[in-house]
Amino acid sequence: MKSPTPSPDEGVAETTTPTADSIASGSTPKVTRASAAWVATGVALLLLILLIVFILQNSSRVEVQFLGMAGTIPLGMALLIAAVGGGVVVAIAGVARVTQLRLNARRVRHNHP
Fold it and tell me: How far apart are CA 58 and CA 50, in angstroms?
């Protein structure tokens, strides 16, 4: 018969901290949100550094015309502005599509109890 008080080993949750033995045996550490955020931050910083190098290497000025306006701007900056503008257009289209899908899902939930 078991005693009503738990033994020191009962009720203790196992830790998921990887040890040198578990890493050496081939088991991989658990991926967490914090580790994913650190990896994403590192990748973003690397891309930012590459972007800065690109802009600095493409500093020759070019003439740009847009909607009746004209001016000169460094080539790297003009390409960056064009890329950001394209990203904004894609983001707007994505938000519109997600909104459309959510409205459709809400209609389906209300029509099918």
Answer: 12
Does position 8 have pLDDT exceeding 60, yes or no?
no
Q: What is the DSSP string of 30-82?
A: PP-HHHHHHHHHHHHHHHHHHHHHHHHHT--EEEEEETTEEEEEEHHHHHHHH
Please give the Cα distance from 46 to 51 (Å, whole number): 9
* pLDDT tens-digit series, residues 52-102: 888 888 888 999 888 998 999 998 888 888 889 999 999 999 999 999 999
Q: Which amino acid does the sequence have at 41? A: T
Nearest to 87 by CA among 79, 58, 56, 14: 79
Predicted TM-score (pTM) of the model is: 0.54
C-alpha 19/C-alpha 25 separation (Å) is: 10
